[in-house]
Amino acid sequence: MKKNNIKSRIRGAYLTSVVSISLVLLLLGIVGLLMLNAKQISDYVKENLCFSLIISDDAAEPDIKQFQKTLDTHDFIKSTEYITKDEAAKQLQDELGEDFIETLGYNPLSPTINVYLNSDYASPDSIAKLESFFLSKSDIVSEVSYQQNLVNLINDNIKKVSIILLALSALFFLISFALLNNTIRLQIYSKRFIINTMKLVGAKRSFIRRPFVASGALQGLISSLVAIALLYAIIYFANSQLEGIMGSIDPLIMLLLFAGVAVVGVLLCIFATLLSINKYLRLKSINLYY
After folding, report:
1. What domains, with CATH codes, occur in the chain?
2. Tens-digit pLDDT profile for the chain (290 aa)?
3. Taking phi first (over 0 means left), then psi (-120 to 50 degrees means alpha), and beta for anything else, what does residue 113 get?
4. For residue 113, which of 54, 49, 46 has the smallest C-alpha distance?
5. DSSP annotation string for the chain
C-alpha cells in the first residue's frame, strides 16, 4: 500500500513538473511567435494606410483609369482603388444615413483614387516624397489626402513595440528559466539521499549525473511536445480569428519555431538539471538535512 502511495506521489510530482515546464516553454514559444510575426503585423498596419488622390472634377474617366493603370506599374504601390463621384456619394450617404445630395441639390464630392503603399515605403520621409510625386505625375490630381499624424504615430509605435517586445522576451526568458530551475531543483532535492549514497559507495560524479541528465532531457522533450501542441492550437485559433493580420504563416518558419521550442526545452532542462545535481554533489552529508 505504501509502495503504491509512493509511486502515485512520484507520478504526480513528475506530471506537475511536466505541466510546469510545458507552460514555461509555451510562454517562450508565444514570445517567439510574436517576434517572428512582428514584421508581418507591422507590414499589415502600414499597407492598410489609405492615401486618397483627389481627382479634378473636369477630368475624363478614361484619363483617370489610364492614370490608375500607370500607378499600378510602380513597385512602391501595392494596390489602387478608383471611386467615382457616385460611389463616393453612396458611401457617404450610408455613413450619414440621409440623402445629402437631395438637400444640397448637387454632388459636391470628387472622384478619388485610393492608393495603398508597400510597407517599405510607408515611412514619413518616403510619404513626403511620394506626395510630391503624385501631384507632379498628372494634371488630373488636385490634392493628396492622408492622415499625416496617424502615419507618424504608427511608425513611432512600431519602433516602441519592437523595443518593448525585445525587453519582454529577455524578461520572460529569465522568469521561465527561474521557474524551470526551481521545478527541477525540487525534483532533485527529493533524491538527495540517493545521490549521497552513490557518492559514499564510490560512484564517479559523471556516473551519478548521467541518469539525472537523461531524465531531464526526456522531461524536456515531453514538455516540449506538450508546449508545441498547445502552441499549434494557439496559432490555428489566431489564423482563424485574425486572418487579415496573421495571414498564413510560412510552414518553414512554423517548423523552425517548433524545433526551437523543442531544442530550448531539452537544453534548459539539461542545464537546470546540471546546476541542481552539481549542488548536491558538492554538498556534505551533514548538510542534507537542512
Report:
1. 2-44+154-289 (no CATH), 50-146 (3.30.70.3040)
2. 444 554 565 566 667 777 877 887 887 788 777 777 766 777 777 777 778 888 888 888 888 888 888 888 888 888 888 888 888 878 777 777 777 677 777 777 788 888 888 877 777 677 778 777 877 777 788 888 776 666 667 667 767 776 776 777 677 777 767 776 777 777 777 777 777 778 778 778 888 888 888 888 888 899 899 989 998 888 878 777 665 555 556 677 788 889 988 998 888 888 888 888 887 777 766 655 55
3. beta
4. 54
5. -HHHHHHHHHHHHHHHHHHHHHHHHHHHHHHHHHHHHHHHHHHHHHHT--EEEEEPTT--HHHHHHHHHHHHTSTTEEEEEEE-HHHHHHHHHHHHTS-HHHHHSS-----EEEEEE-GGG-SHHHHHHHHHHHHHH-TTEEEEE--HHHHHHHHHHHHHHHHHHHHHHHHHHHHHHHHHHHHHHHHHHTTHHHHHHHHHTT--HHHHHHHHHHHHHHHHHHHHHHHHHHHHHHHHHHHHH-HHHH-PPPHHHHHHHHHHHHHHHHHHHHHHHHHHHHHHHHS-GGGGG-
Residue with cell string 488636385: 142
Amino acid at 259: A
